[in-house]
Amino acid sequence: ASFARGEPRFVSETKLITFHSSAGRLGAAREVFDGMGHRDLLAWSAMIGAYATRGIFHEVLALAVSMIGEGVLPDRFLITRILQACAYAEDQRLGSVLHSMAIRRGFMGRVKDVPVGNSVLVMYVKCGELGRARAVFDKMRRRDLGTWNSMIFGCCRSCQWEEARRLLDEMRREGTEPGVVTWNTLISSYARSGDLDVAVDLLGQMEECGVEPDVVTWTSLVSGFVHSDRGDEALQCFIRMRVAGVEPNGMTIACAISACASLKLLRQGSQLHCHAIKIGTVNNVLSGNSLVDMYAKCGEIVAAYRIFNEIPEKDIFSWNSMVAGYAQAGYCGKAYELFCKMESYGIQRNVITWNTMISGYIRNGDDERAFELFQTMESYGVKKDTASWNILIAGSVHNGYFDRALRIFRQMQSVLIKPDYITILSIIPAFANLVAAWKVREIHACIFHHNLEMDGKIANALINAYSKSGDLAGACAVFDRHSSRNTISWNCIIVAHLLHGSPTKVVDYFFKMKQQGVLPDHTTLTAVIRAYGMEGMVSEGREIFLNMDKDYNVTPDLDHYAAMVDLLGRSGRLQEAYAIIDEMPLAPNLTLWESLLTSARMHGNVRLALLAATEMSMIEPNDPRIQVVVSSLQDLAGQSFDVPKVTVHSKERMLGGVESCSTEIRNMVYLFSTGDKVASEHEAAELKLMMIEMGPSMLSAGNGTLEVEEEKEELAGIHCEKLAIIVGIFNSPHFRSIRIIKTARMCNHCHTFAKLVSEKYGRQILIKDPKYLHKFENGNCSCEDYW
């Protein structure tokens, strides 16, 4: 009919191309196009448009090159489409050519050319050329909302957050109000980067501007909170979305279920499961994977496996979630069975799969199997990553194999695997003790080498490790260099000084902390009350305790009550200390009664000491050391006090456990047990001579206190810390401190012995028992004989 009307053949063929492509017959359209003898701009536009509509961008670009090669130049509408394809394909080379062509043909200078300018801008942004994008943006005479959105997106994509915020303010000054896409671009970018406080602040600004957040806005925030391990806030955000009347989509539901998984909220997760069924996304692989993870983490492994089986097209995340579920539940056999089946279902195991299995075995105590998988994974074409090494290090630390963890840490560095903050945070706690000070310094050197010292969590862990290894100066040096101190950082340095018997410094840091606008928390206030107790400043400590709820929004708990008992007990106000326990709204625990026992013992109050010890024996009836204390106090008290009589076991049964201690000499750790023989005759003779020389001093050392030692040397042999001290004196350099870790509390006799040795030999002796870090120097102890 077209030919009958005299219409040119190529015009009819162009219409046929449009007809076929509109009907979904892209192959037929291309066949017509390829058979055309003459192809004008309309024909090229029809064919390129057909591919562009379906997102087949490589064909768009190929046709554009051919078109230009045949001498047909695009108009402003077609050049916009081709530039969009360049953006999606990230073909900057062709995009730059088209940009030049647009300038030469006059498509960039007029008001009506905003779409062309926007396309050029988006192309450079998507290709990562933010500088060129900015040059285009600055030269545009007119900018619409799309222009601003593209530039803001480019800044967010390049992590130039401040510039993106500045552009937002600038567009509003120029009279362009940001739309929902603008706000979503900013909010989602900040949420993905983990800066969620800013994202929430932007949400508030969005609402103030009268722009209603949509499902994309809320999903970005929920997802951001989930990925930042802030599951409770993710659920709060989800609830706000529902209250606002916004219906969640499959992605929102999946993220909310993941939040329930991290918090192990089975009931809420099950409710979200029902909602996923209601909106038809339950069989979506994303929702399915989240449900498998949620049910597995909540201990419902049967439900997790049922969901896993119902996912129609399982991906690697589905399999990894189910393997992790079985491994976390302790069913490593079932996990390994799935692990082996994966490849038969066409799913290639990745490094996460292997790491999950290794973690499962090591967490369930099967270290041998974990190491076997670790050694063989690379023979299956899976390269170990930092997480693989971290799992072995963390597992070894968790299972008590500290030296093995350090060997793995060293091996990791020898094969040029860079440790990350998880590596460091996993290994540091293993060596936060007196006999591992040199290992803490080794780890610190590694942290410095890999530029990890600026990480706040690592800095806090280092302060803690240096403090517990006896190096207060090292802890202070790390704190002083710490640029982003938070409440935890201040707590670390405050607790460090408390541990080392420096109460004045504790109070100083407390006031500095407040001056810098950092709010004290539960831990801070506990330490400060204890510091005031050590200083004898009862009224100041009491004031903190009475006003903590009002001044710091901290409700007193058992730790604060124990600190108050210690504060009052140290000053001899034993009846007030007992009244605190008697009148407190919480049930007293072992620590509270132990504080009262210590105070009563130090001030010679047999009745209160026996009362406290009796209460302790009721809380821990099987603790042999408490039984010994009760027995000793009953012997001292006789029948003169109205305290319930407690049945205690025989001395032989009570002293069944052998106390031990360890010390580090020339980078070697030695273990001593109570009753051991001294290694050399010279050391044995010297110990005997020292005991004779110090005899009178040691006899008078305990005057005024109740002698209720847990273990007498005539029953068990020479106490282990005395053996460690004498070996340290004669086998370590004079300038080095003697460092000892003890499994049980020091007795008064050994405490006095250590003080006298430190004075006689001019040596610093550090002894950490379960209750205190004793720093002996020049005949004095940092605990001031109160522990």
TrEMBL record:
PPR repeats lie at residues 40-74, 144-178, 179-213, 214-248, 315-349, 350-384, 385-419, 486-520. It holds the Pfam family PPR_2. It comes from the Eukaryota. Keywords: Repeat, Transit peptide. The keyword Metal-binding does not apply. GO terms for biological process: plant organ development; RNA modification. One of its GO terms (molecular function) is zinc ion binding. Residues 709-787 form the DYW domain. InterPro entries: DYW_dom (IPR032867), PPR_At4g14850-like_plant (IPR046960), PPR_rpt (IPR002885), TPR-like_helical_dom_sf (IPR011990). This is DYW domain-containing protein.
